[in-house]
Amino acid sequence: MARSWLEKGARRLHLVDLNGAFAGKPQNFAAIRSILRAVGDDIPVQLGGGIRDPDTIEKYIDGGLRYVIIGTAAVKNPGFLKDACTAFGGHIIVGLDAKDGKVATDGWSKLTGHEVVDPPASSRTGASSPSSIPTSAATACSRASTSKPP
User: Fold this and answer.
1) Per-residue pLDDT for the chain (150 aa), expressed as one digit of tens each?
2) How many CB atoms lie within 10 A of CB 10?
3) Is 147 within the bounds of a domain?
4) Which residue in 33, 25, 76, 90 sits closest to 55, CA to CA?
5) Which contacts (CB < 8 Å, 24+ apart) does range 16-20 have?
6) Count of domains observed in the chain
7) Is residue 148 part of a domain?
8) What is the pTM of this model?
9) Percentages helix, strand, coil for the chain, rounded to the nearest 5?
10) Handedness of CA 90, 91, 94, 97 (dihedral sign)
11) How far apart are alpha carbons 42 and 103 in whole angstroms?
12) Is residue 81 domain-resident?
């Protein structure tokens, strides 16, 4: 399947370990490794879901993943986000999942008190500037995996 997206002209492949997001740790590493072996040299691959510690980030990057998406951990532990950006600069994407106007965490299963329009995580972490977090991704949970436009 990953190869077919590449053949259709995809410029980046976005993966989600939703089981990992619920569990709080990676659950599908073997499948992700297989995808990376199939297309990782041909297209940048990014992954979110269950990435909540530096060892997991390092394992994925060493395995060929270009970008890791930090969502729940960015909300619950902004200091971790700052440390990850420092240690793995250029490989971190902040993921923001939104449901009913609130930031959702833990595989979209929990709503926080943060409005979707709250200041970016970089301003809460003490990161030197928003450029410390080079990229962000947003998911409207009510539309994810439905093929409906946002």
Assistant:
1) 899 999 999 999 999 999 999 899 999 999 999 999 999 899 999 999 999 999 999 999 999 999 999 988 988 888 999 899 999 989 999 888 888 888 888 887 888 887 877 555 544 444 433 344 445 555 444 444 444 444
2) 15
3) no
4) 25
5) 16/47, 16/48, 16/49, 17/47, 17/48, 17/49, 17/50, 18/49, 18/107, 19/49, 19/50, 20/49, 20/50, 20/51
6) 1
7) no
8) 0.77
9) 35, 25, 40
10) positive
11) 33
12) yes
Q: 104: which 2 tokens?
A: 């959702």
- What is the span of the domain harbouring residue 133? 2-140
113 domain-assigned: yes
Domain CATH for 23: 3.20.20.70
Retrieve residue 6's tokens: 């590449």
Single-letter amino acid code for the residue at 41: D
Give me the residue label for tokens 């250029």: 90
Render the burial of 111-128: b for 16+ CB within 10 Å, e for the rest.
bbebeeeeeebbebbebe
Distance CA 108, CA 20 (A): 12
How far apart are alpha carbons 105 and 144 in whole angstroms?
A: 14
